[in-house]
Amino acid sequence: MIITGKLYKFGDDVNTDEIIPARYLNTSDPKELAAHVMEDADAKFPSLVKPGDIIVAGKNFGCGSSREHAPLAIKAAGVACVVAESYARIFYRNAFNIGLTIMESAVAADAATGHVLEVDAATGKIVNVTLGKEYASKPIPPFMQELIAAGGLMEYVRKGGF
Amino acid sequence: MPRPMTIGEKILARASGTKSVSPGDIVLAKLDLCLGNDITAPLAIQAFRDNGGKKVFDRKRVALVPDHFTPNKDIKSAEQAKILRDFAREQKLLYYWDQGECGVEHALLPEQGVVVPGDLVIGADSHTCTYGALGAFSTGVGSTDLGAAMLTGKAWFKVPPTIKLVFKGRLPKDVTGKDLILLAIGRLGVEGANYRALEITGPVIGKLSMEGRLTMANMAIEAGAKTGIVPPDAVTRAFEEGRAQRPPRYYESDPEAEYERVETFDVTGMEPVVAKPNLPSNVVPVSKARNVALDQAIIGSCTNGRIEDLREAAKLLKGRKVSPRCRTIVIPATPLVWKQAMKEGLFDIFIDAGCIVSPPTCGPCLGGHMGILAKGERAVATTNRNFTGRMGHVESEVYLASAGVAAASAIKGRLALPAEVRGADWAKGVRR
User: Fold this and answer.
1) What is the ipTM of this complex?
2) Order of strands, sheet of A54-57, starting from the edge strand that comes earlier in the sequence
3) Are B110 and B159 in a shared domain?
């Protein structure tokens, strides 16, 4: 699967409070959550983001609270993919569990909001089309690949994985 | 001979039915307990039902704690809490607390003996790592993992490498478990222990109360850690006496166990510290941040809402007033802590000092309710996170500190050391 989209760039240590502030966590409705996605990192983001856009960030993306509402809000906003240099552990696990495509690659250093990114989720090859620069991604761990192949954690459980 | 293992590795090996595990292994393990709260459990219950869930794997091993937006702050949060209440009744869950019985989950569960040493626990809340203080392996997950756990009683884990923290030296007055863990987070960084377990050890920890240990393990996640385990000892055994609802298993790390690295902290001469906005790793001595004026002080949370914290604050607030500029909210973390504080007369001290005493709730810690900050306002809090906008407006700020520093700061209306409050009296020749 090749994803091509306009990227929005964020910094290091983007935490789940910024991705979806707790003041909106009195609901689990993905649409309501999406209306406030990344609001405390960039107040304009929820009104600018379009389906198919890509979030690019630095280290430790998704640190802090374990709220699955964070990857849910990103996915429900139509963001096609997140590409960060590294992820906090719980966010990483949650993203796979809810089927949000995430890649681990140091794309952020050269990238700027508005650049076009091409992500090959299968091979991990990422191209910043605007700069004409190519990047590799850290491979997805084999067990996570099994989960993906099964159709997510719950499907894996249902198929007798547990 | 199995390979020498750490406490965490031994728990994962036991729970996955193998003799030994090594860092990097993926194991499927049986859980002793799983839990969720009023923010995370509704999605977990949905995942449970969407996948044909009719009955939880064991009604004695699923705990639900509506503590975040309770007492319900609005209609939507009341709807979320109702999902938990209805599910708990339908499933006849043994561990569900409501109304006057409910407290902040990570203070409540150890206090009630629901989590015990040697347990393997997952919770849909990142501060589930708190129970490491008892010598349990416990870690935060998302709602889907909790949903799968309620269905199967199992979860998958990647066995983490362990970083050993050794605290040695003489613990100075006013330096608490909170200061020690902030010191460690300052050195490790917010990502420094990502995918790793911490083992929190050393002679200083041996002398630390269970309250202080719970505070330390609670914030392991703030360095990115999967869990933060304190080796169980006489303090642990005494704490579990008459409390543990299941037989504890006391594990110790083998002398030859493998650590990714060892970080040593000499605490002799250490000063109380604060974490400045907007990361828990921005740690400086309080004396380097004394000119920071405050609008609010929060004493409570799963980090520092236990009786020892309230006593520490009360000692300083006794006979004094908080600054009229600094709204001060005291939140005992559980009904038992509340009752004990009331019995000891701490509420008289707090109320005479001009503090608000709140019912147990996570409330302001996550910017939920019961003490939200306006634009440009600044708080000192005994909580665990000071991220951008964490306690309210995106342009508000949070400084993290111990209960003693929070109380001293509330009195001064700026960040202050407990000694400054006592010192002023000393200078005037007043003895307290």
Assistant:
1) 0.96
2) A102-104, A81-84, A54-57, A2-9, A116-120, A126-128, A133-135
3) yes
